[in-house]
UniProtKB/TrEMBL annotation:
GO molecular function, one term: transaminase activity
Keyword Transferase attached: yes
The protein's name in its UniProt record: Alanine--glyoxylate aminotransferase family protein
Cofactor(s) it depends on: pyridoxal 5'-phosphate
Family: Belongs to the class-V pyridoxal-phosphate-dependent aminotransferase family.
Residue ranges occupied by any Aminotransferase class V domain in the UniProt entry: 32-332
Keywords noted in UniProt: Aminotransferase, Pyridoxal phosphate, Transferase
Annotated organism of origin: Nocardioides panacihumi
Amino acid sequence: MTSIVSRHLFGPGPTNAYPEATEGLARPLLGHLDPAFLAIMDETCEWLRAVWGTAQNRTLPLSATGSAGMEAAFVNTVHPGDVVVVAVNGLFGQRMCEVASRCGAEVVAVQHRWGSPVDPERVVAAHPAPAIVAAVHAETSTGARSDIAALGAAVRDAGDALLLVDAVTSIAGIELLADEWGIDIGYAGTQKCLGVAPGLAPFTISERAFGRRVERPRSWYLDLGLLGGYVGDAGPGPRARTYHHTAPVAMVSSLHAALGRILEEGLDNVWARHAAAGQALQDGLEAMGLELFADAGHRLPELTTVRVPDGVDSADVRRTLLERYDIEIGAGVGEFAASVWRIGLMGPNASPDAVALVLHALGDVLGRPTSG
Ligand SMILES: *Cc1c(COP(=O)(O)O)cnc(C)c1O
């Protein structure tokens, strides 16, 4: 048997889980149609509405990781030939283009410099009447935060396109107000700021978007019309639960426990905790003489990108952090693979202790000791 290894997961995800989430995983398994489990599922959906900032009935955890949320978003809403405008400012925007195009969309990609936020004016100017406008709220590949409130307002002013948003790394980390911002279709993931293992994709869709959905999407597993029969999100009326697929009951219990813990702390407090940790980390890295990568004023607190100093081997440093401190940080993505590090402080890791530990460890490995 291999030995149990425990790490500080300070990369782009998965993060370490909240203790409550780990306890949730260990609860006795229940049948997925057991009334006791359905009560947990219902409360999970209710609490997901709270972290999404939405009153949408159709808010549920999809049984797969964040990328399945992306697939579900496009496969359920793109009709062949639909124009889909995608704001691309990093890897996940690029991936949206690929997924949308496989669903038959005519994709209009609006390219942005990596590290910069999405520019709403350029995005809405890209096409006169798209069916969908899509963007990533928190680009985990670059550490840039985009203003979805402004994008939503611009999209509404320009026409009646649906707004589709990736909130994988923003949910339960930074402010997210789906209804106020006009998000029609949103997907997220559990292993970033929600502080749960990877495996579920919190999803939400407005009535307006659901009304325009593809009736018989190419994906049977991710067909929102069929899924609604199980999670009982179809609104008023008898809540008959029909079997579609076996819900991952342990993962739902874990998410339920984490959401309970997050809402008990209070969303405002959770956002403030992430903001404080990110700011302290970014200040500390700059004090060490390092240069941050994402544009000032648009930096995510939960995912910090920092340039690898000249003459330093990025992979060597990451390996030493792992071996000496049990700390995992992320490499950069694409052309920045070797020139940027990504340091995540998400969920339980958004704490002063984690900030102090990662600054100390990085200072030690780089030979730039911190004063603190
Ligand atoms: C992690 C991530 C995803 C993909 O989620 P998986 O759980 O890896 O499938 C999508 N979008 C963003 C912004 C992410 O950070």
